[in-house]
Specification:
Helix content is 55%, strand content 9%. It has 306 residues and is an alpha/beta fold. The chain has 3 domains: 18-149, P-loop containing nucleotide triphosphate hydrolases (Rossmann fold); 155-216; 219-304, Zinc Finger, Delta Prime, domain 3 (Up-down Bundle), CATH 1.20.272.
Length: 306
């Protein structure tokens, strides 16, 4: 299996970084009872939100964690269906635990329906909400959850993570230069780092591995440059060529998610940026039916924002 799956933490002690979040969750579960029924994890794509959510499910001793991608279940009917289902006791164990990913994709009506469920859930039901954009959630939903901002990892934390993984893979003498190159490209996101490491870990020659990393991460680098161009409001005529090149390597929906993740990470490090908020809103809707034309129009529109 890919390294990002094989080495996904199952316990808080195995998580690198985000010590504050780990400490808070540990203190909650020292109670032994009366646990909160709703947790909210926010942060950029690939930072570990769903990993924390799954660990919470494990700490609740849930035998079957149910994950739902709410970007595909946006309407009020999906929440009503969830409410009807969750009232029943689980087949195994005493807890039903739901991970609701991309929860900000829910419509306002669906969020209001979810709010009712969060206010008075069945005693055996617990939720973990995951989002890259908590500002899109109703304030009342935020108020019903224990909130955690999952942050990107520092350089030293990324290095500790990668060294731990190569050691577990029985590669104790793995070149540190390769790990440093991965860290420089991964932007503090553990999933990105492990995906990159997985793509070159079997290349024995150090120089070839670093060269391969450049190739593997090319689309990511180009996307980063595109994001920076969007932030600057660069004219479309200067951007359209790179957009064409990126779309030759990256699926339109994947590109939208990459841009959205980058912009969200930037916004989380600012006190306020109204234009950036508008950019994020421009890329908030998936392009399932008009894939290429949809993402091109989103990029073009974002460049015109004042």
């Amino acid at each position: 299996m890919p390294l990002q799956i094989t080495h996904r933490p199952n316990e808080l002690k195995d998580v690198f970084g985000n010590q504050g979040t780990k400490d808070s969750l540990e203190s909650i579960f020292l109670r032994k009872k009366d646990f909160p029924h709703a947790f909210l994890f926010s942060g950029p794509t690939g930072c570990g939100k769903t990993t924390f959510a799954r660990i919470v499910g494990t700490m609740l001793k849930c035998d079957n964690i149910e994950e739902l991608n709410m970007s595909n279940l946006r309407g009020i009917d999906s929440v009503r269906s969830l409410a009807e289902t969750c009232i029943y006791a689980p087949i195994l164990g005493d807890v039903r635990f739901y991970v609701l990913d991309e929860i900000h994709r829910q419509t306002k009506d669906a969020q209001n329906a979810l709010l009712k469920l969060l206010e008075d859930p069945p005693s055996h039901v617990f939720f973990a909400l995951c989002t890259t954009d908590p500002d899109q959630l109703l304030p009342a939903i935020l108020g019903r959850c224990h909130q955690y901002q999952v942050k990107t990892l520092k350089y030293s934390e990324m290095m500790d993570l990668l060294k731990s993984v190569v050691k577990k893979e029985n590669l104790e003498d793995y070149p540190e230069s390769i790990l440093k190159e991965i860290i420089s490209l991964a932007e503090g996101l553990p999933r990105n780092a492990l995906v990159m490491l997985d793509s070159i870990i079997d290349i024995e020659d150090e120089g070839k591995a670093i060269a391969a990393l450049s190739s593997v991460s090319l689309s990511s680098i180009n996307t980063k440059e595109l994001c920076q161009a969007i932030l600057k409001g660069t004219p479309w005529k200067e951007v359209k060529k790179s957009v064409k090149e990126i779309l030759m390597e990256v699926e339109p929906e994947k590109l939208r998610q990459m841009i959205l993740g980058y912009m969200t990470a930037v916004l989380l490090n600012k006190d306020r940026d109204d234009r950036l908020s508008q950019v994020i809103d421009t890329f908030s809707e998936p392009n399932f039916y008009n894939a290429k034309s949809g993402i091109v129009n989103q990029i073009y529109t974002s460049l015109l924002l004042k």
